[in-house]
Amino acid sequence: MNFIKLVLFCALVALLSFACTQTTGTTNSATTPTASPTAAAKATPAEFATARANFKKNCEACHGENAEGGIVKVDNKRLKVPSLKADHAIKHPDADLVKKINTGGDGMPAFKDKLKPEEIQELVRFIRKELQGQ
Question: How confident is the model at residue 37 (pLDDT cuts 50, 70, 90)?
Answer without folding.
Answer: very low
